[in-house]
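batch_manifest entry 22 of 60
target: HDOD domain-containing protein
source organism: Marinomonas vulgaris
requested by: lab member K.T.
priority: normal
notes from requester: please return tokens only, no post-processing; we will run our own comparison against the previous entry in this batch. if the run fails, retry once and flag.
--- input ---
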Amino acid sequence: MESSAHLQSNETLCIVHLADHTGRLRVIFPKNHMLDMSAISRITKRRFEPMSYYQRAGDTLVKPNNLNTILAQSLLAGSTYSISSQAGAPPRDITSDELKTLFSGPLNRFEDISIPVKHIKRAATHHQDDDMQILQALGRFQSIRLKKRIEETLEIPPLPASSHRVIRLSNDKTAGTDDLCDVIALDPSLAAQVVSWAASPYYGAPGPIASVEDAIIRVLGFDVVMNLALGLSLSNAFSAADNNLRHYEDFWLDSVSSAVLIESLVKKMPASQRPSLGHAYLAGLLHNFGYLAISAILPPHFSILSRCQDANAHLPTELTEMHMLHFTREQIGAWLLRHWNLPDTIWMSIRYSKQPRYQGQHQQLAKLLYLSHQLLHNGSIESAILHDLGLTLEQAEDCRDTIYQQSTELHKIVALINQLNA
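--- output ---
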């Protein structure tokens, strides 16, 4: 384990509760570490599932001996940590010696259960290196034979026919509303989703929406419907994986929220800096597409990854993905969308959506995806990002607050997706 010189003073402690069919386990570790679920299984000989990630007020300081507890060995290194002793109270400092004394009872022990975040390898900086990084990662899995090309290594589902048709239409500069209506009508489920989406109270359309043409002309517009249809049809490629996807409804709520938030942000930007509204909407819908891809392509590893991410809700998803898979959802999602010949604007913005300082082609949309993620997950927002997008923090937060106020309507859209994909 690392020495006290490498640990930050007053580092906040994370408290995670795990459970299996025989009981519960509490684990405590530094916030700048990742909880190693495989180490927990190895030490306990049990397969725990994470409960909700939370710090129970006063739990560790008031009743340290009321529950089986494993603390990270690194907490004995001599540093001072920060922990809250009751709800709403400011955090107080606690030393390693105090922790050792508090948790000296028979239900507690110190073990090597966490990994310093700084020791986790990061994703490739540039998308041109993704193929090699993903291939090397896949070569680690015994169930997959390493080949020279990703498409030869993975069993990639075919692009849905409806997606093919929409992509072809999007490349036709002469296409109009009638052409788009005809293409969407070939997939009744897709047509129903587009119509119901436009009829959502979120958009406040006057009168009923009776057709795809109504959705285009009266509510959403040609570009948004084009890209909405493409995003919804692409999700059908992984419909077989839906039953295995943890928090499937949360996945779609995040996707829908991101799409409508980015739409709102784009409208607030100076006209000269705005990306295509349709592409922005589609990028928001598909920003988490790699998560679906992992669930379909690597189901056994996805299950383990999901447990790890639930237990490490304090960390960005790319860190747990790099530790477990050695590539991120942004890398595999962007690669797959590029393989399916989606516009560069979409896959490149998704690929760089977790790199706020990215400078390059389609950087505006990549930064919009980053801003949307930070707003929806209460992350910090760099002023430089807002400046590059021509937005103020007040404008961005107003857009987010409007989305929150419409959460009931957005949940109805998600319920519709679940119903029509069932």
